[in-house]
Each structure stands twice: as structure tokens, then as C-alpha cells.
Fold this protein.
Amino acid sequence: MRLLMTEALEAIADRFHPRERITGIHSLGSGNVNETFLVTHDGRRDGGAFVLQRLNKSVFTRPDLVMRNLVALGEHVQRRLETPPPELQGRRWEVPQVVPSRQESRPWVEHDGEVWRSITYIGAATTTDVIRDCFQAREVGYGLGMFHSLISDLPADSLADTLEDFHVTPSYLRRFDQVLARSIPQNPSKALTNALAFVNQRREGASVLEDAVARGELHHRPIHGDPKINNVMMDEATGQAVGLIDLDTVKPGLIHYDIGDCLRSCCNPAGEEAEDLDGVRFDLALAESILEGYLSVAGSFLSEQDCAYLPDCIRLIPFELGLRFLTDHLDGDRYFRTNHPNQNLHRADVQFRLTESIDNQMPEIRALISRLLNAG
Ligand code: GN1
Ligand code: MG
């Protein structure tokens, strides 16, 4: 963690905790959208640390609604935990809570036109960018299942839609077409030519989940929206999942978006920023452990139709993320933060390689899912 005690950051942190008691401000995590810091202090409140975040206002255009969702979610899950579900027996489960600002009545502060908020830090737990083994994979699956279970009775209409068309693949495709039409690349590189061709070969299947929603086969429920591997906190001592973080995208959607996103991020052992594309692959054994963990908690609330679309979401969500990265590359890297010019193109290539690997294993993936569902 990099230490970053600038005057501006200290002044913002002071709006949540007296600055004379703050002992350090470090950058935290590797998010592509918001900017995140860990503030440590010598007080006992919040266990000596809290998370400070600058919300990306061009992505989250209504920070007030993001914060309202966070508060509603936190209150709901706290209530549910008063009578913990049997699957939580003997385990720890934590929910990041909004930390109020010291002076304002609203739970965020503005500084130089930017929106900052603070949430509690889950101590004695860590995240990882690349999965270690099947035990950890099972725990990630359990974590997502527990999260879905705890929010399954939060009425979907009590959550605002803070990111319209998030994970609606046909909308990303429309946007891709618009961006491409106005910025047709001159002398495209081989990588770009291949990526564009990849999208065109697969555009037909992009509406599989939304078509199922339109036919009434799948229904929206509260979801996490971004359950990638490094958003699942693991207990430092036991290695068990203890909670999901990064809750800004919690809103109504399909649980399939979450399952697809979790698998695409965990089952590629080379990671999202893999340098060597040849190392990118979809690992079936990890997928099995994640799904096993997920179904051990969530199996009981999946309908037959929900189950029928599981293989589709596993194939779709990596394609969708690749498409989002590629569109942003063509659009001048305005959405996903980058450190070098072709980073979003390379990220797209990684997701497209993963999609190919999934495609090549579709019969095995279908067989695996039927086996797990029949066992449950
Ligand atoms: C973004 O900011 P971060 O890294 O938590 C994105 C996700 C992508 C992810 C890929 C709001 O999440 O949808 O899957 O990058 N979040 C948003 O790393 O677009
Ligand atoms: Mg996120």
C-alpha cells in the first residue's frame, strides 16, 4: 500500500474523523472506476481504520442515489443478521456500513466539486487478485451465494437504478457500434482488427439473457453487480469468505450477471491484466468449486429457468466485459482508468481469449452444471 498523506486528502478525511488523530492514508485496492484510500487512526471507533473513496461522478451520475442504496442495503442486511441463516452457523459475516460525515447530515462530502464518502473497513480480512486453489474458489462461491441470500428479500423497487443498462449486453453493443461509427480507426493494429472481428462474429448471441427477461423467463432481483474476485473479503486466519465489498452497483438486475462475472474473474488463473495472452484460460475445476459453494447457499432459491441460463451467463459476461473495454479503448479510455495507451485493448483481448476458452468447453460446462444441480 502506498502512503499518500497529501494536505487535500487529510482535509477530506478530517470531515469524517478528526485529522489530529489520523495516523496514515494509503491507496487501497485496484479498482478501475473509483479511487479508494484506507485511513488509519488511533481512535477506537471503526476499529482504527475506515475506507475513504472518491466516487467517479462521470460513471455514477447520481451519487445521492448510490448512497441511498448503500444505506438501505446496510440496514437490511444488519436486520437479517439478527437471525442468521443456518448456513452462517459458526462463521463470521460483515457488511460495510456508511460512516456519517462529522458536520453534514448527508452521508457524503463535496470537495473541489468531487464527491467523497466513507465506509467501514473490514478488519482481519484480505482480498486477492488471482485465486489460489479450489478451497478459496468454493469460499468465493459461498460468499456470493450468501450475499444473494441476504438481499433476496430486499424489495427490488427499494433500490434505485444507479447505472442504467449495466450488464445489458445489447446496449453495450449499440454503444460499441456508435463509437466505432464515429471513430473508424485508421491503420488498425493486428490486435485491434482481431478484436473488432471477434465482436462481429459473436454479436448474435449478445441478447440471450435480455431475450429471456423479455419472455418473462428471468426476473430482476437485487444483485451485487461487480462480484469479481477482489471484491470478496477472506478471513485472514480461516480463509473463509466474510463479506462482499464495493457495493455501488448493488441494484436490480439478473443474478446471472453476478454469477457470470464471478466466474469470469476467478476462473482465469492468469488474471484480468494478464500480460501473456496464451496463459489465459477458463479453469473448469475452479468453476466447479465456485458453483458448488454458490449452490450450497443459493441453490434453494434458483428457479428451473434460472438454472437453465447458467451456461449462457458464463459465456456472455466475459464477452460483454471485453466489449466494454474495447469500446472504451476506441472512445479514448474515458471510463476505465488506464496506465498506458493500449491497456483497454489488451484487457479486451484477455476477456476475448477467455470467452474462446469457455466456448471450447461448453459441453463440459453444461455437463458440470447439470451434475451439480442434480446433486443438490
Ligand atoms: C469496474 O472499478 P472496479 O474495478 O471495481 C467495473 C466492473 C468491471 C471491472 C473490471 C461500475 O469495476 O463492471 O467488471 O471494472 N465497474 C463499473 O475490472 O463499471
Ligand atoms: Mg466495482
Summary: The first helix runs from residue 7 to 14.
